[in-house]
TrEMBL record:
<comment type="similarity">
    <text>Belongs to the UPF0344 family.</text>
</comment>
<feature type="transmembrane region" description="Helical">
    <location>
        <begin position="6"/>
        <end position="28"/>
    </location>
</feature>
<feature type="transmembrane region" description="Helical">
    <location>
        <begin position="65"/>
        <end position="85"/>
    </location>
</feature>
<dbReference type="Pfam" id="PF07457">
    <property type="entry name" value="DUF1516"/>
</dbReference>
<keyword id="KW-0472">Membrane</keyword>
<keyword id="KW-0812">Transmembrane</keyword>
<keyword id="KW-1133">Transmembrane helix</keyword>
<dbReference type="InterPro" id="IPR010899">
    <property type="entry name" value="UPF0344"/>
</dbReference>
<keyword id="KW-1003">Cell membrane</keyword>
<protein>
    <recommendedName>
        <fullName>UPF0344 protein ACFSUL_11055</fullName>
    </recommendedName>
</protein>
<feature type="transmembrane region" description="Helical">
    <location>
        <begin position="40"/>
        <end position="59"/>
    </location>
</feature>
<feature type="transmembrane region" description="Helical">
    <location>
        <begin position="97"/>
        <end position="117"/>
    </location>
</feature>
Amino acid sequence: MFDNTHAHITTWVIALILFIVALGLHNAGKQKGMKVVQMILRLFYLLIILTGVLMFFKHQGIDPALYGIKALVGIWVIAMFEMILVRMNKGKGTGIFWVQLIIAFIIVLYLGLRLPLGLHPFA
Ligand code: HEM
């Protein structure tokens, strides 16, 4: 959990799937089902942060600035998941949050893969 990225990757991949399922249920008009998925998704936000923080505190000394930015952008992705679903439920516009989600997701993948643990396609 502290020295490899497996648990962290598992949590954010499941969160991404739950986010897509929540969107699908919303579009199908199944609001009750969507609410349940949204609650489970919120639990996964906590697990993403927990697994990220555990690696962060053990390894951030290697490159504190980049680790700090990685953590903040990770929180930004989670915030956009939440904003999109909440605003969708209220019937409000989500365009600007989708733009931010895509930008933040690209940055978090790039930073995560550049940092020393786990996979290094860019190194
Ligand atoms: C949805 C949000 C997030 C996504 C998509 C994401 C994605 C990733 C990816 C792709 C990696 C690299 C895995 C590898 O190289 O095997 C990674 C590593 C990491 N993430 Fe996240 N992450 C997210 C949220 C967070 C948060 C909130 C934190 C901190 C609070 C965090 C801290 C870390 C740390 C410390 C690493 C290890 C960096 C290293 O040394 O290689 N992540 N993340």
